[in-house]
């Protein structure tokens, strides 16, 4: 089955030094379409719970939309191969200590830091604030996308494949 969009890049942003919560940021490589989820801690079980919620959000079209996930070697992503079971999704790992392998998601995290500066506890951010940041990122025109938004590009790719 051919896919529309090929690669998801997840990363985890930690909050203040005393906070446990973290922010899972995911972006689809081709359209730069972001999904943000607050997780209660950086354990792999919490990350999997958030990823499964994102997977359910896309419904049955998740497997049709995405072919691969590329992530770093953090222990929080150690259970990602479970997502491969029963579908065509493949997991790849970036080279250790090489953030340039995930430049796109690192740049997106830098933009998120405008709203959630380092040291700010994620416990102090509401779900509505996270949703607002996510929507702002989706509506941000980008030079890389020909000054279109991630939302526009994502929907165009879905329409091409008659998925959305």
Automatic annotation (TrEMBL):
Domain Integrase catalytic: 1-150
GO CC annotations on file: cytosol
GO molecular function, one term: transposase activity
Gene Ontology biological-process annotations: DNA integration; transposition
NCBIfam families given in the database record: transpos_IS30
The protein's name: IS30 family transposase
Lineage: Bacteria, Bacillati, Bacillota, Negativicutes, Selenomonadales
């Amino acid at each position: 089955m051919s896919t529309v969009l090929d690669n998801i890049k997840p990363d985890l942003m930690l909050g203040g030094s005393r906070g446990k919560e973290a922010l899972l940021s995911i972006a689809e490589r081709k359209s730069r379409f972001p999904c943000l989820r607050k997780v209660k801690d950086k354990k792999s079980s919490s990350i999997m719970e958030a990823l499964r919620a994102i997977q359910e959000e896309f419904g049955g079209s998740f497997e049709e939309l995405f072919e691969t996930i590329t992530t770093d070697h953090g222990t929080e992503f150690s259970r990602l191969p479970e997502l491969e079971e029963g579908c065509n999704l493949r997991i790849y790992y970036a080279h250790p200590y090489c953030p340039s392998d995930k430049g796109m998601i690192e740049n997106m995290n830098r933009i998120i830091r405008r709203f959630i500066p380092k040291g700010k506890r994620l416990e102090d951010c509401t779900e509505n604030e996270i949703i607002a940041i996510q929507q702002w990122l989706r509506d941000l025109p980008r030079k890389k996308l020909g000054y279109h938004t991630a939302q526009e590009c994502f929907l165009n790719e879905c329409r091409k494949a008659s998925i959305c």
